[in-house]
Every structure is written in C-alpha cells, then in structure tokens.
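README: folding subset

This subset contains proteins for which both the sequence and a predicted structure token string are available. Records are stored as plain text. Below is the entry for Transcription termination/antitermination protein NusA (410 residues), shown exactly as it appears on disk.
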Amino acid sequence: MENLALIDSFSEFKDDKQIDRVTLMAILEEVFRNALKKKYGSDDNFDIIVNPDKGDLEIWRNRIVVADGEVEDPNEEISLSAAQKIEPDFEIGEDVSEEVKLIDLGRRSILALRQNLISKIHEHDNTIIYKQFKDLEGEIYTAEVHHIRHRAVILLDDEGNEIILPKEKQIPSDFFRKGDNVRGIIESVDLKGNKPTIIMSRAAPVFLEKLFEQEIPEVFDGLITVKKVVRIPGEKAKVAVDSYDDRIDPVGACVGMKGSRIHGIVRELGNENIDVINYTSNLTLYITRALSPAKVTSVKIDEVKKRAEVILRPEEVSKAIGRGGHNIRLAGQLTGYEIDVLREGAEEDVELTEFSDEIEGWIIQEFSKIGLDTAKSVLEHDINDLVKRTDLEEETIRDVINILKEEFEE
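--- output ---
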C-alpha cells in the first residue's frame, strides 16, 4: 500500500457529518507520528507532508551522511555507501531525505496504525457530540424510542446519537413504545471513557419552564417571566409568573381562554395539575396565592426561622393541604417558607402529633393526608366518613377518637 490517497484507504471510518477532510488529515499525521516514534524511537527527524485537497500524505526521513563504519544512531545517520545508493553524488556531512513507504513500517505497525486511526476518529466524533449536547443542557430536545429497558428508555435522535431517559427522570404515568417521539430536557452531559453520556429528564422543573417558553408566545418574547417552578411530576405543579407590563395579565395569558394555552402542556406532562399564580414581592400575599385554591384568613410570618403560620376556616384546610399533602408541600417550595396550617377558633385545639405516645405515627400521617392534623378536626367528622376517606380500619379510628375525647373530658 502506498502513501498516496490514504484518505480513501480509511474512508469507511469517516463520517462526513462529524469530521472534515482537513481534520482527518491532522488526525492521520498524528497517528503516523506515533507509529514512527514506536518504530524508530523518535519522529523529530521526519517530515510528514499532507495535502488535504488531494487526500495524499508523504513521509520523509532526514539523516546526515557519515563515513562507513561510523554510524552511531541509524535513525539520524546514514553511511556514505548507503547514501550513495540513493544518490551517487552524496558526500559526508550532507543531509539525506529519503521517502518512507507505508510498507516500510511493517505489517504489525500498519494494523496498529489502522486501529489507532479508528480510535482517534471516534474520539474526535465523541468530542464533537459532547460539545454539541453540552450547549443544549437545559433545553428541550426530541428523540425517538429505540430500546426500552427496566431502568431506562434508550432514545436515538436523527443523527443516531444515544440519549438515556432514566426511570426516575420519567413522569410516573409515562408509557413508551418503540418508535415513539419523546420530548424532555437535556439534563446532563458527561464524558465517560471518551464516550458522551447524555441524560434526558421529563421530571425536572426546568422542563415545565421550557414548555411554557415553547407554548406561550408572551413567555417566549420575554413579556412574561417565569419566576419559579416547583413540581411533583405527574401529580401537581405550581408556576409563579410576572410581567413588567401592567397591561398584561400573566396568569390569564399563560392559562388562555378556558385553559386553551395550558392544555397542551398539561397533556404533555400526563395530566399534571398546574397552578399558575401571580408572583409578588409581598410575602404575605405570595404565601396566600401559593396555597391556592384554599382561601387564607390570615398569615403570620417568622422571617428568621423561615416559617409561616396560616389560619384558615375549617372547610379550607383540606384544600390548603391537598391530596397527599401535595399542595402545602409545593407552596412551601415555591415561597421558601415552611407553612403551618391552623384552623380558625382552634386556639384550644391540640395537634395530633402531641398524641404520638398513644397514637402511632403512621396513623397520624393518614389523618394528615386528608387535612386533619388536630384533635378537634378529627372529632368533628363522622366515623363512617373517616373510614371512607382514609386507609384506616374502623376499630383503629374508634381507638383514636376515644384517646382524643379523653383529652377534652379531663
């Protein structure tokens, strides 16, 4: 094999979309220099001439002519008689340039060179892919389901790049089939052993934020700002929005007429319940809005401890807490305050947690899930109603009620 047209010799490893001819020639030179170092000990006295336009490459070895029998370093010196076989006019002390053919490197070196070239090209491709997706971190991306595993879905984009959507970064209701198009955000990109690992997420709050940018023109144009997003993926989300233009109703613009604008986002997120609220720097008002749809009577704030004590009418408490405690948890995350809910007129009431010596914690938690976290709030309900609304047995509920009644009979 000659050195000419080496690009064509290795064309099966060249991806036109990932590597250009000039870069391939540079990689080729690097690989050849490594091969020369291995065979001759040094590549300092070699000239490698590449021509990316023609796709050829030449290697020239430069040595100094010395008298016969005085060659100490055969890589840098050549005897007079050997030099005169190349050109009869050579004399001692002159420089000799001799072309090295690919076959001179030996069969094993050629095989190693070929393997190194493949490795370098793949490494280059992976670096390009890494940089490309690193720039896309936090952005929405679409790819097709290629393979479904137990702990992750493997996606491929139009360029054949592999993207991983782990189980924990999916929405619980997500169900995929091979060939489905999937949208998510590129959450992280890492190089592991020179191979880029691209992770997609559909559960991250930023995915919902980017969906607002895509689906709501005023957000895309910057007329409306998404201040903060908190989510329990597939269950509930709260989005605080604001606008510098007083003529714009941020919430109305995001929700749309009869929910027309937000409907597509809700559907994309597996019918996740999305509360959109107006952001305000007035902390009391912000906490009140964050607890929507509950109507708050009053708010007492402790800015040092980052706690807020919220008083509501008894019928509003369950709304404030929400199913599974989702509403109050998200309100706390949105505002940055731990929120304690109290009922109006409950000054003489007792928190259920005060009975932890007599009532097991998981039972107290069951009552809390339906918004009942004080003794009187439990006693106000009928036993049959409590059986229907909780996962507790009737006997367990009766025992709890008896314990609570004793507190107020003393």
